[in-house]
TrEMBL record:
PANTHER family: 5-NITROIMIDAZOLE ANTIBIOTICS RESISTANCE PROTEIN, NIMA-FAMILY-RELATED PROTEIN-RELATED (PTHR34071), FLAVIN-NUCLEOTIDE-BINDING PROTEIN (PTHR34071:SF2). This is Pyridoxamine 5'-phosphate oxidase family protein. Pfam families: Pyridox_ox_2 (PF12900). One of its GO terms (molecular function) is oxidoreductase activity. SUPFAM superfamilies: FMN-binding split barrel. It is an enzyme of class 1 (oxidoreductase). Keywords: Oxidoreductase. Its EC number is 1.-.-.-.
Length: 216
């Protein structure tokens, strides 16, 4: 079986690179998977950031399987978003409005200034402006972190897009059908219990919540 294309419902494959970028940018986490040297599967959810034509990841240098991926083992990074539930005239035809993507390849370990820049980029994507509100990274902290990059090439990704609504041909009189949208937003920030009343929510956090509320 080939992993280069969908084996069923091929009409749901999308070749729009901009749509892939949007999905990667919208989702904070994805799943990195590989096969370890003893032949066993390994997968872990990870925070990520898209930086142009590459996906940036990071983790502890103490993670054994992560070290294997960093050494060049073939890996897959997958993200998905469920955007709504599609309600049809029968339970068999019920579905979901979704987008999913996989990017395959060998990860590159970033070192030196490139590692520092990648970790800064991750911070800027996850919470823009937060780096200016906290102390900078220490050398020992960067040394304890493995920074990785997975290149997005022309032929190493698959984007699949699910239904936005049920098929009109399946319509039956008297049965409501349609789409129930599903979204994700940030809630009201909760102050750490050891902080005093004088600590205000910083600008980076306020902006994060505001952008989420307006779906920008």
């Amino acid at each position: 079986m080939s992993l280069d294309d969908l084996t069923r419902l091929r009409e749901r494959r999308a070749d729009d690179r901009a749509a892939l970028d949007r999905l990667l940018d919208e989702q904070l986490t994805g799943t990195l998977a590989t096969v370890t040297t003893d032949g066993r599967p390994w997968a872990v959810p990870m925070l990520h950031a898209r930086d142009g034509d590459r996906i940036l990841l990071h983790g502890s240098t103490g993670a054994g399987a992560l070290r294997q991926v960093a050494a060049g083992s073939e890996a897959v990074f997958a993200v998905h978003s469920v955007d709504g539930l599609v309600l049809a005239t029968s339970m068999f035809e019920h579905s979901a409005s979704y987008r999913s993507a996989t990017v395959r390849g060998s990860l590159r370990t970033l070192t030196g200034d490139e590692a520092w820049d990648a970790l800064d980029r991750l911070s800027d994507v996850l919470v823009p402006g937060r780096r200016a509100e906290v102390r900078g990274m220490l050398k020992k902290e960067v040394a304890a972190t493995v920074a990785l990059a997975l290149d997005i090439a022309e032929d190493n990704w698959i984007l699949k897009v699910g239904d936005d609504d049920t098929d009109e041909e399946l319509f039956e009189e008297g049965v409501w059908t349609g789409l129930v949208p599903l979204g994700t937003t940030y809630g009201e920030p909760v102050r750490s219990p050891w902080l005093g009343e004088g600590y205000e929510v910083p600008p980076s956090v306020r902006a994060l919540v505001q952008r989420s509320g307006t779906n920008e």
